[in-house]
Amino acid sequence: MADERKELLEAAAALFDEAAAELDQAAAHARVAAQHFRDGEVPRGGAHAWAVRGHVLRAQRALDEQAVEHSRRSRPTA
Question: Residue 50 pLDDT > 70, yes or no?
């Protein structure tokens, strides 16, 4: 039983690690996009802006997966 719990917690941690990594990448692209827009480099800024969105979506999917898993195990109390 303890091994199963440890595996479940590790899986949860991995999903949060994945979300964090994606959000770190999103932040990096956002900073680059901002600079490109400041420099008037609209196509390059736009490309990085879309990369931000992609990383945010991937992070959201990891968090959604965790929420769905939590809903399977959570029981409401009266």
Answer: yes
